[in-house]
Specification:
With 178 residues, the protein is mainly alpha-helical. 60% of the residues lie in helices and 11% in strands. The chain contains seven helices and five strands. The strands form two sheets. Strands 3-5-4 form a three-stranded antiparallel beta sheet. Strands 1-2 form a two-stranded antiparallel ribbon. A hairpin with a 5-residue loop joins strand 1 and strand 2 (10-12). The longest helix is centred in the first third of the chain and has 29 residues, at 18-46. The protein is globular. The N and C termini lie far apart (41 Å). The relative contact order is 0.10.
Length: 178
Amino acid sequence: MREQTQDNSSDSVVPLSPPEEAFLRALARAILIVPRVLDADLLREQGMSATEYSALMHLSEAPGRHLRMSDLAAACALSLSGMTRIIGRLEADGLVQRNRCSTDGRGWNAVLTDAGLARLQRAWPTHLASVRRHVTDHLAHVDLPSLTAALRRFATDTRGADEADPVDAAVTLESARR
């Protein structure tokens, strides 16, 4: 089977083998399902979304427990407006504060409060149990360092990046759903 390219030349296309096709389909399904079940567990047991948990986690790991809003949005794979909504909810609960960036008067930092750190610590066992149940318990016989390296390569492969950035695509999809 041959595929025409934009310049009308033909290149050989190698079909996926059955194991490659099975892996691709399983990966695509996991990419959709795993975040949903982790989110559902946190919502049910902690009244906190996985996105809120992720924001608190990234802030807890940052020097001084603060990050510029745009950096936090990037770390959580959200648009800046999406992160602003998340931080607004966390701020209303006293878990985060917003402060002007000292080095750039136009920017804002999200700062994790002591109450926010305590809330993250209470939610952590639920998140850990969920991750173990839905992910790591299924990887007992898998070479984790190799799998981790492969997944990192997937995430950093820049071929086709000009066409669509995955974060931008997720933001576009999120906007379309509203």
